[in-house]
Amino acid sequence: MTCKNCPPYKASEFGVFFPDCFERVGGHCNKKNPGNVQNLHILAHRVMPKFFDGVELDYLHRLAPNKYITAAWVLSHIRASGFRFGGLYTFRVQDDTMYTPTIMGDIHPTSLAANLNILYYPFQSLRMEAVLQKAREAAPVDSQYTIEWTRQCDTWTANFYNVRNENGRCTLSVMRSVTAHWALGAELLLEWNEPQKLTPDLALAARYSHYNYSLAATASRQGLDVSYWQRIHPQIQMANLLAWNRNTRKTIATICYQWSFWNSAVHGMFDSDASVGFMWTKYLRNLPLQLGFSVVMNLPTDRFAFGMRFVLDPSGLRRGE
């Protein structure tokens, strides 16, 4: 069968024939979604220790399945010290499912420094997120807006950072699964410091992954980042990271590990700058308390930082209960 505008579908005496008309058929992808370019190295970064500084006390309490209140007291040399309180609220709850929008935030009552995060899924494949941060009462608001469209085999993301007429920065990225193990992507950076001056930059990304190991790399004119993650045992993960910056001509290589137990975890790292770090976290068995401490030390300079963190969680959310 042919359409009215096509020649007949049959072989002529000269051996020439015309095929059927093209038809648009819905495609099918048997590959998994690769995520976005920003989270390309997330498996290796999860193994890295998250160092504490000073003393931090956190409190998390559940009022309802969609309502939480939080409080924190921090004594630190790096972070803003003092007391903060906030919460999390999800607008809709149906049966056992919570539906966005979700609002998370906290505020420092003395300096009025505040953080606000709004997450909204208009439909399942579209994510819209806004992150606002104000350092103090007279400081401008730092903003980050994200629009992400997720399909079965690819993810398209747009991020906007402090976008204003006089300055700003935005990234446009795409990540796609080429095979069951290979994923390729690209990210375009647009940055301007003057209304008439726009500086573009392009980065390429690739990842090769299996269920127990993953190799990822990103390259641009500014530098190169490579990460390798592997689960060498059901309880042990190892990761290697390499970062090279073109402007500073500096390369840093890091080796880190994570050893998980049923109620605790140990993270450690060592890098090419001769810095050694260690972090330990544990959930107490008879109390709704998570405690942890960390220490990081630079061997050539003999400088170190030590920190402790306590998380009081009567709801059991930190333990997945």
From TrEMBL:
Topological type in the membrane: Multi-pass membrane protein
InterPro entries tied to this protein: Porin_dom_sf, Porin_Euk/Tom40, Tom40
Transmembrane segments: none
Subcellular location, record wording: Mitochondrion outer membrane
Keyword Endoplasmic reticulum applies: no
Domain of life: Eukaryota
A Pfam family per the record: Porin_3
UniProtKB keywords: Membrane, Mitochondrion, Mitochondrion outer membrane, Protein transport, Transmembrane, Transmembrane beta strand, Transport
Protein family: Belongs to the Tom40 family.
PANTHER family for this protein: MITOCHONDRIAL IMPORT RECEPTOR SUBUNIT TOM40
Name used for this protein in its record: Mitochondrial import receptor subunit TOM40 homolog 2
